[in-house]
């Protein structure tokens, strides 16, 4: 695996792949990798000839009171994991290289960011889209893999690709979970033992909703209550939202149907966790 920090080297390597007629897959990450990230690598490798991964903790997508400075990092471990998983090229840009001066022009997500994560984290998706746009330009892949775990993120990115006419195929990879159901996340390292137990409330609430839906309950209010009843068993958990929404616009639905997204966000201590499922899958 080749590791590059300079954009010229990145472009040169990708051009050489392309000159060989190879199809290029891209996996953008913020590092501190786990099996969820590595599942994106596996998917890219299945679908393309060469896989480029990036590690960049993007300051533009963190709010002033968020965890940018304490976001976990371990570049040598990440490098070893990506190499073992068969990544061809790892791009690790410096912050001064990505943002030599403060960005004046950014990518606005519009109404898709008005709700849910976008409402709780103002400016977050502008930061995400801006860095994804820059990385898409720099890497110029044929395909890019994103996790279902961050479902609003991939929905917003998909819409950017469509509205801005990018010829990049997006692949959404299902959420990888710990054995007990907790969605893998770099932020799970923040959880102390009792919080780790409380963190299970998210996947449990989602499973309860999926079960009631499978039994024939479709009313969004009723399904919302099912999720909230599960959360109520965890008094230390603060629910930010339970969203039962359509997959394109992420607007609340009255009745759920196969394909409807159920997304939850909750705080366990100072750690914010998100999870979701797609009904009928
Ligand atoms: P991050 O490093 O948190 O920015 O995540 C990089 C990519 O990995 C994003 O596309 C995430 O959605 C994806 N990802 C994070 N956690 C998981 C998971 N548990 N399962 C699948 N994909 C994930």
Structure report:
There is one protein chain. The protein has helices at residues 7-19, 35-47, 75-84, 95-98, 116-120, 124-139, 151-163, 193-198, 200-214, 220-232, and strands at residues 2-4, 24-29, 50-55, 89-91, 143-147, 169-173, 237-245, 261-268, 271-278. It has 281 residues and is an alpha/beta fold. The strands form two sheets. A six-stranded parallel sheet has the order 1-4-3-2-5-6, with helices on both faces. A three-stranded antiparallel sheet has the order 7-8-9. α2 links the parallel β2 and β3. The longest helix has 16 residues, at 124-139. Adenosine monophosphate binds at residues 29-30, 36-37, 39-40, 146-147, 149-150, 173, 175-176, 183-186. Residues 29-30, 36-37, 39-40, 146-147, 149-150, 173, 175-176, 183-186 line the site of adenosine monophosphate.
